[in-house]
Design a protein that fits this description.
69% helix; 16 helices; mainly alpha; 465 residues; Amino acid/polyamine transporter I; single chain
């Protein structure tokens, strides 16, 4: 490729079987919708309301617009290079700098594994609540979380077809939960309950700040609920005809989730005042109790449990495929690119990411400011990906692919970079966590480089003179 260094494929990569292409447009659509919905909307509605008051729907709408603009860049790249590895592959092709590629891959992988690990502990907590189990807050929750993560790994190892079918079921469950909220909210509105006027009320700031910056702060939180669309590009090698189906499916998935989020936000704020909605960790449960007191709240607890389970499954799918893809590109050791001959799944990458998740569940537990830190890391990645689109315009491929309008990658890079800054009102702890994670990435990159240099020297020494 002109203008970019290409990492040679690792030895033996050609002998590895390819991944199994089982995902048609409907499975891919459900994968995308399920990945975006996740746990974000179930947990963040109250926190966004705390920032902006009654216009809680506006930050979700703005987050949708930012995600949509960046999605056009991903569409151009995934149809141009329909292979696993996603953002890291695109950055590597654009800049050819091993360090940048590694850090991007590490940031995306880390966000996925951390989210999945936290979702596992949340699953354990919801399971305890649903069955009135006394697991405590320590070893019991950890043990159930580890068991759940092992189950996720087993489904992942079984095959992407089984994994995606499980995703279909879980997506339907979590989407049903949000549709229940929408139904309760608009039924209540139709019967004169609640206060529809709240949907246009901005929160009065006490520190003299403007409504504009309150909305920006809310958008930086709400963006976590929109991430997930980028995971689908890591499934490119397991999709049927990705260059053709990805554009319509990805845009449809974003549109569906964006609409659901806005409707859920309107229903929630109509029934529950913003200050009360911000209390506790189950804001949507308050909406159910306010709009339909007779609705079995235990059932909604089950739905929440399945929603976080879906987040864990999809994030571990993404993380393992990312590791596999980068191994095939020669950026990570070739061992991580091995594919099981019978199941056609990247079993070494699955084992590697699962072990990392076990470590997080066992020793870290709940990660502070998880949503904000995950969004922060991914916004950094999105900024670089939008720039990579512009750089790769000069690289021509021998098959038709999607072309994003030139202005969109520019707007995407600017908007994502803007939402990274401290002026958005981010909690400083998010920058601290991100810095620690990226610092670990730098150490791993250095170890990888030293290992590769040692392997080359050993090979050179063994050659006959």
């Amino acid at each position: 490729m002109a203008g970019a260094a290409k990492t040679p494929s690792p030895a033996g990569a050609a002998e590895q079987p390819s991944l199994h292409r089982v995902m048609g447009p409907w499975l891919l659509l459900l994968f995308i919708v399920g990945d975006i919905l996740g746990t974000g909307i179930y947990a963040l509605t109250g926190q966004v309301a705390k920032q902006v008051g009654g216009v809680v729907w506006l930050p979700f709408l703005l987050a949708f617009v930012v995600a949509l603009v960046t999605a056009f860049s991903y569409l151009e790249l995934v149809t141009k290079y329909p292979r696993a590895a996603g953002a890291a592959l695109y950055v590597h092709k654009a800049f050819g700098v091993h360090f940048i590629t590694f850090i991007v891959a590490f940031a995306v992988m880390c966000s996925g594994i951390t989210s999945a690990s936290t979702a596992s502990r949340a699953f354990a907590a919801n399971l305890a609540g649903a069955f009135s189990l006394d697991l405590g807050s320590g070893l019991g929750i950890t043990a159930v979380g580890l068991g759940f993560m092992a189950l996720v790994a087993a489904v992942n190892l079984r095959g992407v077809g089984e994994s995606v079918k499980a995703n279909v079921l879980l997506t339907c469950v979590e989407l049903t939960g949000l549709l229940i909220i929408i139904g309760i909210g608009f039924w209540a509105i139709g019967t004169g309950q609640g206060d529809v006027g709240r949907v246009l009320e901005f929160k009065a700031t006490t520190d003299g700040g403007s409504a504009f910056w309150s909305v920006i702060a809310g958008t930086s939180l709400a963006f976590f609920a929109m991430v997930g669309f980028e995971d689908s590009v890591n499934m490119a090698e397991e999709s049927k005809d990705p260059s053709r189906i990805f554009p319509k499916v990805l845009l449809a998935g974003l549109a569906i989730t964006g609409l659901v989020y806005v409707l859920v936000s309107i229903a929630a704020i109509t029934l529950v005042p913003p200050d009360k909605l911000a209390e506790g960790e189950t804001p949507l449960l308050q909406v159910v109790q306010a709009g339909a007191p007779g609705f079995p709240v235990e059932l909604f607890g089950f739905i929440t449990m399945f929603a976080v389970a879906n987040s864990a499954l999809i994030n571990m799918l993404m993380a393992s495929r990312l590791v596999y893809g980068m191994s095939r590109e020669g950026v990570l050791p070739p061992l991580l690119g091995k594919v099981h001959a019978a199941r056609r799944t990247p079993y070494v990458a699955i084992a590697f990411t699962t072990l990392l998740a076990f470590g997080l569940i066992s020793f870290v537990g709940e990660v502070p400011a998880l949503g904000g830190t995950t969004a922060l890391l991914l916004l950094l990645v999105f900024t670089i990906v939008n720039i990579a689109v512009l750089v790769l315009r000069k690289d021509k491929v021998d098959h038709p692919h999607f072309h994003a309008p030139l202005v969109l990658p520019v707007l995407g890079a600017l908007s994502c970079a803007f939402l990274v800054g401290p002026w958005t009102g981010r909690d400083p702890v998010q920058y601290t966590i991100a810095a620690v994670l990226l610092g670990i990435g730098v150490l791993l990159w250095g170890a990888t480089v030293l290992f590769q240099r040692g392997a080359r020297r050993k090979a050179a020494a063994e050659q006959p003179s």
